[in-house]
Amino acid sequence: MAPSPSSLGKQSHPLFRDGPFDVHKALDPIINAGSTYGQFLYESAVAFYQSDSFKEVAMKLKLQGYSSTQTALTEDQVYRLAARIIALNIKSPPVLHFEQQLNGLISKSDSYNQSLANKVGCTGFGIVVDKSESEAMNNNGTYYKNLNVILCHTDYDNSCQEVVSFLVRYTVAGNQKLAKTFGLFQKGREMVISGYLSGYSPVDKIFEATAISVSLGSGHESPNQGSTTPVPATKQGKRNLQFSFDSDEEAGGNSNSKEPDTAKAASNIVQNHNLHEGNAAATSPPPKKRGRPLGKKPVDVDIGNAEADEPTNSL
Fold first, then answer.
1. Is 168 left (phi over 0), alpha (psi -120 to 50) or beta?
2. 202-240 burial string, b = 16+ CB within 10 Å, else e?
3. How far is CA 121 from the centre of its chain?
4. Which end of the chain, N or C, is less packed with Cβ atoms under 10 Å?
5. Is 13 exposed, middle or buried (0-12, 13-18, 19+ CB in 10 A)?
6. What ranges do the domains of the chain cover?
7. 124-155 residue pLDDT tens
8. What is the CATH number of domain 5-234?
């Protein structure tokens, strides 16, 4: 489903995902009578490793895409999907709006033996609304500081057919390369962060991702930095969901938790950013007219005389 024309003129700061997804269940599609095309919905999950125990954790999510009955996804199959993600900061599974043209069948679920944890890549374009530093320890026992950045994403939600906003927390490692980019993250600035999904906070109801590379919205990129995937202590089933959004007490969830202060401040920062963009467009001087400079008269060329005066070569 394409965005409505009224939403195309609004600013968009999307979050893209790309990776393998196991289709658990096919839901009822949204198809008009007499047509074979429509919106197809599915249940799936995304997996990641817990930072403290390195255990594999699976979180429920929904898949939605426009296709036909012939090209629809099949249950108990693993597909590579490229999608936009809508992860509202509420107690509800996030929704991936995938593109049917980019689908790729990998294998049947039973024959896919590799872990799906930390395999979903992401590229987020958003506005910085908060940042803080945290201490971490590497394998040789030395401590360093990571930068925790919260971006506000704005995108069109096909489910409710309107533009929505949500927050995502990114961890930028304080290693030799990415530590040099800490100064780029300023509140109200547009940033692009590429990495992979690495967690979920049930208290704040917010996605967590680990950055691999960062760049300014203007296009100045920072060096890439590879990451290593920890080996899980115990292997969980691919369909044993720790975050199913069906209970108030799952993996540290708290139904009475207050709305995080970051969400309140994010709205003000995004509004100020949009106001700044509008004022800049309104006060910008009109473009200069391009043409012949004043004071210079055109030179008349007598083509006939030019041809007459041109010397000829005799054989």
1. beta
2. bebbbbbbbbbbbbeeeeeebeebeeeeeebeeebebee
3. 9
4. C
5. buried
6. 5-234
7. 999 999 999 999 888 788 888 999 999 999 99
8. 2.40.50.140
d(CA 170, CA 214): 11
- Rounded to two decimals, the pTM is 0.70
Closest CA to 49 of 245, 242, 250: 242
CA distances from 274 to 89, 198, 251, 280 (A): 21, 30, 37, 10
DSSP result, 102-159: G-EEEEETTT--S--TT--EEEEEEEEEEEEEEEEE-TTS-EEEEEEEEEEEEEEETT
Angle at 233 between CA 227 and CA 234, to 5 degrees: 120
Least confident span in 140-144, 221-225, 311-315 = 221-225
Q: How far apart are the first and last CA of the chain?
A: 74
